[in-house]
Amino acid sequence: MTADTLPPTDERPPHSASEQESGRTRDGDAGARIAEGIRTKIIAGLYPPGTRIRQEDVAAEFGASRVPVREAIRQLEYEGLVTVRANAGAWVSRLTLAECEEVYQMRERLEPLLLRYAAPHLDDQALAHLGDLAQRISAAGPDTEQFLLLDREFHLASYAPAQTSQLEDLVRKLWNTTAPYRRAYVSSWGNDARRIAHEEHHLMVAALKDGDLEEAERVLGGHIRRTRRQLARTPEIFDTD
Q1: In whole angstroms, what separates CA 29 from the centre of its chain?
Q2: Which of 10, 18, 38, 55 has its CA 20 to 30 A from that of 228?
Q3: pLDDT of residue 21
Q4: Beta-carbon count within 10 A of 169 CB
Q5: 59 in Cβ contact with 66 (< 8 Å)
Q6: Residue 180 has what pLDDT?
Q7: For the chain, percent helix, then strand, then coil, each to nearest 5?
Q8: Tens digit of pLDDT for each residue in 115-128?
Q9: What is the per-residue pLDDT for 184?
Q10: Geometric angle at alpha carbon 101, from 141 and 41, rounded to 5°
């Protein structure tokens, strides 16, 4: 090609494969970061069920284009945290009481199994950390937000050493989808309900330290089942009006 057949200097040649891949990687990283930001707000109760998620607002908040925002919303839809309606937009997902009960029945069966995978890998340091968390939960008193934060950390830390391909991700997804309703439920606790929850954490730690996995599983299953049954007695938190 001669000099007078070269493209004008303000025209760029098509992106190379490596440039295109780099762009996809950047969008993917931004999408993951945005998804984590929205997920955190949903779990923290800052985006209650039924909240409209506007792409332009999210893009402005995170300083991103619409592409990674759409990626983030697709990921959150897959996780069950966001509901997308064709030609209408995205909202934080709502659960009915029946749907929430189904999720808790799944948790009641799956989390003891996940604990069984994790328990052999909970060393003295990990068990001491669980014991410290149980003490901090008890000391939180009626502080709902502190309880929810520490309770989540406690249970997920007890599962963290598990070596599974799917189970841990599934359990975390189930935790996330019920977080707004758990907040409303814990906020309604009296002293007895709070005391029982605290005792169950300590009993689980004691069983794990004793190497009594069957007892730890039994306490955990009962812990989740009691929450499910109490949620069924508070149907007003699922009102959608």
Answers
A1: 19
A2: 38
A3: 46
A4: 11
A5: yes
A6: 87
A7: 70, 5, 25
A8: 999 999 999 999 99
A9: 87
A10: 55
